[in-house]
Design goal:
- The chain is an alpha/beta fold.
- About 40% of the residues lie in helices and about 10% in strands.
- The protein has a single domain, classed as Dihydropteroate synthase-like (TIM Barrel, Alpha-Beta Barrel).
- It contains ten helices and eight strands.
Amino acid sequence: MPPSAADLAPTGRAALLGILNVTPDSFSDGGRWFSVDDAVRHGIGMTRSSGDGPAAFGADLIDVGGESTRPGAARVDADAEQARVLPVVRALATEGVQVSIDTMSAATAEAALDAGALVVNDVSGGLADPAMLPLVAERGAVYIAMHWRGHSADMNALASYADVVGEVRGELERRIDAAREAGIRDDRLILDPGLGFAKNGGHDWALLAHLDSIVSLGFPVLVGHSRKRFLAPFAAEAAASERDDVTAMLSLLAADRGAWGVRVHDVRSSARALALSARLHEELP
C-alpha cells in the first residue's frame, strides 16, 4: 500500500525535505547538480546523518525538480523535464531514498512515480495540468498542493491581496475540495502556503506569523522558505547561497508554529534547528 503523509514524517519532529534541483537555472543553485552522477551523490549525501546526538539525522525525503520556478523563469517541456529528473529519481529510489518529484506536469509525475517516487510536489496545486489530480488519486501517491496563482513569468503581477492570510487559506480550501473531488485521500494530502510565489516579502512574513491559520485546515503543512528573497535583509552576504543560517532559524520557527515539515537546500543546519524545536516541545504539556 502507498504511504500516507504520516508514514513519511518522523515521530517527534518536523519532516525534513532536501531540495535537489537538476536544473541549469534555479535561483540559488542552478547548474550545480545538473550532472546525474553529481545529483545522485548529493541526494544520497543529504539523507546521511552527521555525527552523533539529537541532530544527527539527514533528510527524510529528497525533492527532485527539473523545472525552475523562480520568478520570471521560462517553462520547460515535459520531455526535457523528464530527461533531467528520471535518471536521478530512479537511482535514488534504487538506493532506498524516499523521493518526491517537484513538477506541475502529470506526465512527468506519472513517469517519476513509475521510477520510484512516493510523493508528487506540485507548486500549482493541480491548476497547471488538469490531468494531475486524477493521476495522483489513481496512483495513491502523497500529494503536496501549494498555493499558486499563476506561472513564474506572471507571479509578481499576481501578488495583490487585501488579506493575504485569509485569501491564501481560502484558496487552499478550494484546492482541498478539488483534491477530494478527484479522489485523493485526506491522509495523502499536504498543503504548502507557497512563500515567494505571487507574494512579496510582507506577504511571506504574514503567512509565517499566522501559519496556525493554514494548519487549522487540518492537513499537514510544508513550509518552503529556503534561501528566498525575503530572507536577504537578515543574511550577511547578498548571494542566495549565503542564507542557510537564517533559513535554519526560520525552520525552527516554522516547526514551532505547527509545520509538518520544511523544504531546504542545506539539510544539516535545518536538522539542528528541528532538533532544537523537538527538544523544546518535549517540555510542553
